[in-house]
Specification:
About 85% of the residues lie in helices and about 0% in strands. The protein is mainly α and about 425 residues long. The protein is globular. The two termini are about 35 Å apart.
C-alpha cells in the first residue's frame, strides 16, 4: 500500500464509506440537538444549574451502562445494534417537540437517548476492525475523529443559526431525520461479525441465577483484558490521563475567558472552534504520517508537546496569543485519541472487543467527570494559571515516565532474545 494514498484507499472501501457517511450525518444532527436543548432550556426559563444537570445526565449512563453495553455488543450482532440504536434514538428525539414543556420530561427522554448511545458507541468502535483491514485502522480512526471534530466545529455554528431562525423544534426534527438516514446507511454496510463466546443463553443453562453470574463474569472480562494486556492498559491509562486534563479544561477555559481576558461566551465559542480546528488538522496529520512512528512513541511525544504547549498557555496574557496556543493544543492531543483507539482495536480479540470498549468508555468518562468536579474548587483556591502549570507538568512527567518504561521494556526484550540465542 502506498502510504500517501491511505485516505483514498480507506474511503474506496464501500462499507467504510457508508459507515463514515452515516457517522457524519448523525453527529451533525447531534450538534443540532445540543443547540435545540439549549434553546429549549432558555425558553423554559431554567437556570444555569439545569445545564450542569444535563451534562451529568450524559455522563451517568456512561459510567453505569458502558460496561453493560459492551457485554451485549459482544453477544448481539453489532450491525443490528447500531441500526436499531439509530432508529430508537430517532424516535425518541422526534417525541421531544410533542412533550409538555416540562424540563423533567425532556431529561427523561434524553437520559434514554444517552443510554442507547452507549450501546451504539461500543458497537461502532468494536466494528471498525470488522470493516477495514488491520493496516488501515490508523487511517480509519483518523477519518472518524476528523469527521467528529468537523461536525463539532461546523455543526454547532450552523445548528445555532438553524435553531435561532426556525425554532428549537426544528433542531429535534432534523436530528431525528439524521438518525434515520444513518440507520439506512448502516443497514447497507457489511460487517464481519465475530464468533460468539459462550453466553447464559446457551440451552444447557437458562436459570436466572446462572444468567446473572454469567453477566457479572462478562463485565469482569472487560476489566481483566485491560489490566492483563500491557498495550491495552497503556492505551486506557493514556486516554484516561488526557480525559482528566479535558475535564479540568472544561471548567478552566470558561473561567479563564471571563476572569483573565474579561470576555464573554462569544469569545469562548471562538476558542472552542479554534481548538476543534487544531484537532481536525492533527487528526488528518495522524492519518497521513502516523505510521512513521511506533504507536506508544507517538502517544508519549504527543503528551510531551501537550505539556509544553499548556505551560506556554499559562504565560499567556493576550487572547490572540492564547487562541494560537489553543490551536496548537488541538493538534498535539489529536494523536492521543486516535492512536489509543487503534491500539485497542489491534490488541483486543474480536469476541471481547465490545466489553473492552464499553469498560474503557466508563473509565475515561469517570476520569473526566471526577476531575471536572474537583477542578472548580482547585481553580478558585490556586488560580487559573497555577492549574495550567500543574497540568503541563503532569503531561510532561507522564511522557518521561512512559519513555523510561518503554526503554526498560525494550532492554528486557533484547536480553531475552540474547538468552534464547
Amino acid at each position: 500500500m502506498k502510504k500517501q494514498d491511505g485516505f483514498i484507499q480507506v474511503l474506496k472501501n464501500r462499507n467504510f464509506s457508508l459507515f463514515w457517511s452515516g457517522q457524519i450525518v448523525s453527529q451533525f444532527g447531534d450538534q443540532l440537538n445540543q443547540m435545540a436543548l439549549v434553546a429549549l432550556i432558555y425558553m423554559i426559563g431554567a437556570s444555569g444549574v439545569e445545564f450542569s444537570k444535563l451534562m451529568i445526565l450524559g455522563i451517568v449512563p456512561t459510567l453505569f451502562f458502558g460496561p453493560v453495553s459492551g457485554v451485549f455488543v459482544d453477544r448481539w450482532k453489532r450491525k443490528k445494534v447500531m441500526v436499531n440504536s439509530d432508529i430508537l434514538r430517532g424516535v425518541l428525539v422526534l417525541s421531544i417537540p410533542f412533550l409538555k414543556r416540562s424540563i423533567l420530561s425532556v431529561y427523561a427522554v434524553m437520559f434514554l437517548v444517552f443510554i442507547i448511545n452507549k450501546f451504539f458507541l461500543s458497537a461502532r468502535s468494536a466494528s471498525i476492525p470488522n470493516i477495514v483491514n488491520r493496516e488501515h485502522l490508523l487511517v480509519a480512526n483518523s477519518l472518524s475523529t476528523s469527521a467528529y471534530t468537523l461536525t463539532i466545529v461546523l455543526g454547532s455554528g450552523i445548528g445555532g443559526i438553524i435553531v435561532s431562525l426556525t425554532g428549537w423544534k426544528t433542531g429535534f426534527y432534523i436530528d431525528s431525520i439524521t438518525y434515520f438516514i444513518s440507520a439506512l446507511l448502516l443497514s447497507l454496510v457489511t460487517v464481519r461479525e465475530p464468533s460468539k463466546v459462550d453466553t447464559p443463553t446457551a440451552k444447557d443453562d437458562m436459570s436466572i441465577k446462572s444468567s446473572i453470574s454469567h453477566f457479572k463474569n462478562d463485565i469482569k472480562v472487560g476489566f481483566k483484558e485491560i489490566t492483563q494486556n500491557e498495550s491495552v492498559l497503556f492505551a486506557v491509562l493514556a486516554l484516561s490521563m488526557i480525559m482528566s486534563v479535558a475535564g479540568v479544561s472544561f471548567v478552566l477555559f470558561p473561567v479563564l475567558v471571563r476572569n483573565t481576558f474579561r470576555l464573554g461566551t462569544g469569545s469562548l465559542g471562538i476558542l472552542i472552534s479554534i481548538l476543534g480546528g487544531g484537532l481536525l488538522l492533527g487528526s488528518s496529520a495522524v492519518g497521513k504520517f502516523g505510521h512513521k512512528l511506533a504507536r506508544e512513541k507517538l502517544i508519549l511525544l504527543s503528551f510531551l508537546f501537550t505539556g509544553i504547549i499548556i505551560l506556554m498557555l499559562s504565560r499567556s496574557s493576550a487572547f490572540l496569543y492564547f487562541l494560537s496556543g489553543t490551536f496548537l493544543l488541538g493538534i498535539s492531543v489529536a494523536p492521543i485519541f486516535i492512536v489509543t483507539e487503534t491500539i485497542l482495536q489491534e490488541n483486543v480479540i474480536d469476541a471481547v472487543r465490545g466489553k473492552v470498549f464499553g469498560t474503557k468508555v466508563a473509565i475515561v468518562n469517570a476520569a473526566f467527570l471526577f476531575f471536572g468536579i474537583i477542578s472548580g474548587a482547585i481553580i478558585d483556591f490556586t488560580g487559573e494559571k497555577s492549574v495550567f502549570v500543574v497540568l503541563g507538568v503532569i503531561c510532561i512527567l507522564f511522557a518521561i515516565a512512559g519513555e523510561i518504561l518503554l526503554y526498560r521494556k525494550t532492554q528486557e526484550n533484547l536480553k531475552a532474545i540474547e538468552k534464547s540465542e
